Each structure stands twice: as structure tokens, then as C-alpha cells.
Amino acid sequence: NAGVTQTPKFRVLKTGQSMTLLCAQDMNHEYMYWYRQDPGMGLRLIHYSVGEGTTAKGEVPDGYNVSRLKKQNFLLGLESAAPSQTSVYFCASRPGLAGAETQYFGPGTRLLVL
Amino acid sequence: AQKVTQAQTEISVVEKEDVTLDCVYETRDTTYYLFWYKQPPSGELVFLIRRNSFDEQNEISGRYSWNFQKSTSSFNFTITASQVVDSAVYFCALSEDLNYNQGGKLIFGQGTELSVKP
User: pLDDT for A68-88, tens place per residue?
Assistant: First the structure.
């Protein structure tokens, strides 16, 4: 049971380039989330999904898109990377059940945009 | 609006000292959950505890204890007899939306960096 995994672990992009971050979970969780972590700001929610085929915006969605074509995968896309998107990105998941509110996080992806 | 405040940005203690990390929250809901996560230098986020708003009992787990007080909207975390391995960034978080219409997302505090020196 790998839990929540993220690919890649680290990436350097040039301004304007695009990329996709992959999050995968093998716990059959309904809900999945993408957060970004910046110094002094904690984690902020980018987008989330309450089930396969559904996505919704979080607190800081601008410049990102997401897709949840399969229940176990949640993709985060940057169409045209900007230096302001330099951050550590965390994916999380949890069951869609009452009483199961704990989110479990992946190891993170460190992204540097030059 | 929901908000979590961890006023202590950095704390430095010497091993075996007790240390308390403060967390104050704001919410309009009467039903909510509070969490603490640990982020060691390796970077992953480790779940420590979840507490629902109806349970104000203090909790102890080994050297860790949590004090939840609704009257002051606080959920403080104490490490007794700290050890070097406790060095990490600790995050407090709040979850509302228990109807799950908005995904039950977490609102995080800014984090407190704890440094335990030998």
C-alpha cells in the first residue's frame, strides 16, 4: 500500500513552459486535493475533487488546471509557468465518508520556475 | 471567515524542555474538526491528531498532549521532554463543511518551526 504518491519529486521550468504534476492514491479515496506551500503562508488549496470526473476551485486556482479522469489519479497542470508558481506542491486524499475527515498527504513536488 | 493563526513563527528549546505550540482558530460553524500535522526536515506532512468540535477532552499520546478550549477558540499542542527528533514545522488546521458540499477542505495556519537543540 503506497498511500499517496506524487510525480515528479522535483522539477525546474522556464517561464512559459507547461507541465503536469501527477498524484496517485491506492486507498480508494473519493476526495483529492492539491495544495501549495510557500514560506510563512502554510498550505493553500489550489483545486480539489469530490469524485471521479469532478473538480472545483480552491483558494488559489489561477494559473492551474486539474483533471480527475480516474478515481485514483488527480492531475495538476500549469499551462504557462510563472516564477510566482515556484513552490512546493502537495497532493492529499481522504475517504468521502462522514467521520473520515483526515487528509493524507503525498511527499510533495518541489517546483522551481526560472 | 475561517482562519487559523499560529502566532509563533519559530521556537527554539533545549532538549528535555517542555514546549507549547499555540493555535487559535475562527469559524462560523458549530461543527468542525481541528488537526495538527508535523512536517519534519524531510518535507512530508505527518498527521498527528484530529479533534471534533464536540469533544473538548484533552488528549495525551506519549510525550504529546493537546488542549482544546472552545471558549478561547484554541487548540494548543504541548511536547513534554522535547527531543531533537521533534524538530520540525508543525501546522494546525481547521476543516468545516461537514456536509462535504465543498470537499471538506483544510484551512492551515502559517506553521510553527520548532528547533530542539541537544
Answer: 999 999 999 999 999 999 999
Instruction: Show Cβ contacts of residue B48 under 8 Å, excluding neighbours closer than 6 positions.
Output: B35, B36, B37, B38, B64, B77
Give Cα B20 distance to the centre of its chain: 10
Q: Provide, as residue numbers in chain A, all residues whose Cβ is less than 8 Å from the Cβ of B25.
A: none
CB B116 within 8 A of CB B15: yes
The answer to whether B91 contacts A42, with C-beta atoms less than 8 Å apart, is: yes
Q: How many CB atoms lie within 10 A of CB A31?
A: 24
> What integer pLDDT is reported at residue B52 of this predicted model?
87
- Which residues of chain B have a CB within 8 Å of the CB of A93? none
Strand partners, B76: B67
Q: How confident is the model at residue A107 (pLDDT cuts 50, 70, 90)?
A: very high
Helix, strand, coil % in chain A, rounded to nearest 5: 5, 50, 45
Do the Cβ atoms of B103 and A88 come within 8 Å?
A: no
